[in-house]
Amino acid sequence: MSSIAASDAAVVRPKDRLEVLFGELGELMGQRNAIDARIVDIVAEMDHDNLLGMTGCRSLSALVAWKTGSSTRNAEKIAAIAHRARQFPLCMAGLREGRLSLDQVAIIAEKAGAGSDGHYVTLAEVATVSQLNTALKAEPPLPSEPDPWRDTPPEPAPEPPPRPTITTTHSDEQTTTWKITLSHLDAATFDAAVQSHLDAAVAAWKRDHDTDTLPAAVASPFPTKGEAFMSLVEAGWDADATRRPHGQHTTVVVHLDIKEQVAALHLGPLLTDADRRYLTCDATCEVWFHRDGQPLGAGRSTRTIGRRLRRALEHRHPTCAVPGCGATRGLHAHHIQHWEDGGPTDLDNLVLLCPYHHRAHHRGVITITGPAPNITVTDSDGRTLSPGSLARPPTRPPPDAAPYRGPTGERAQWWCYTPFEPQPPSDN
After folding, report:
1. CA torsion 48→49→51→53, rounded to 10°?
2. If pLDDT is split at 50, 70 and 90, which confidence band does 240 have?
3. Between 73 and 189, the higher pLDDT residue
4. Any idea of the CA torsion for 200, 205, 208, 213, to the nearest 10 degrees?
């Protein structure tokens, strides 16, 4: 009888084993929250000290995704908290102490209004992420001053629709601002055309950027309407010649002084050194050479890489050569030794770059040295870029944090919830 009782006592019931596992899980989650808080502090220091520009990354979240090996969405959460860490000291304290999770603080940092730290830190200790999202949706916008009452003015007489107009303004920052005025019908046609090219660019971007697997260090940015407009213009270049008998006017012409190394657009402003090298590298343009103010003749169009050479480049490395970038469409063939410096159009002197990194290189943000295919990519501080993350086995003990209790799991009674009321900015 005694041996049977002893054997029964040695058996651990599933309920007891589950409680032990839950206890260990809560302790690990508390330590994980404290570790996440330290990661946020590190990222916030890089953000507030403007250290991002030294790395060549397009955004803070891209830098976090690259160096931590995490997904793009998780990196965006860390970057959002780091950017507003000073506005939510109580939530950050809860994250450091292990009482709040990264997802709870992230949704507050992404959507909460200014001055709501004390309101949401109490709610976050008992609410799930989904419940916090519902509470944030109930937050009203900033109150606006109502317009004074006045009589309804008489309806004006109908005016003829305005004629399409385009005005351009050149700034000192090597940019040109276009202002286009269209009637509603013409604007609807224009919007539909731009939206069509934007949808195509977004679809291509999603195919090139797998947010779950790509450790995008400095991946090309998400397409915008400005890029869709340029795609619409470029599509017009390739239309049938009978549709545009003056199509030669759309060719970009660059005048290059081979002695002074100064370039200017045809009947346009001077170009910066970065734009000059970019256009004479792999951008479609016609180059006219000058010496002492006298034209010497027209050079070749710079995008003259033949189909066979292009296929060889794509077979050797079908994506952008910058570590971490997975772009495969719209790539430029970049001359490692610049074309204007006598760099040959050979396979050993060419690599494929996405437009974002191609411009970044010519601006001096990143440096590419060869010969290909064994190239070296460095940032503005001379550090070599590699696609790997910084993860390594830990050498320090885990932080001393209380076990994470988590949300209560109760059903929220929204009928008695008082949303946060944002206050308008003071006159001072």
Report:
1. 80
2. very low
3. 73
4. -140
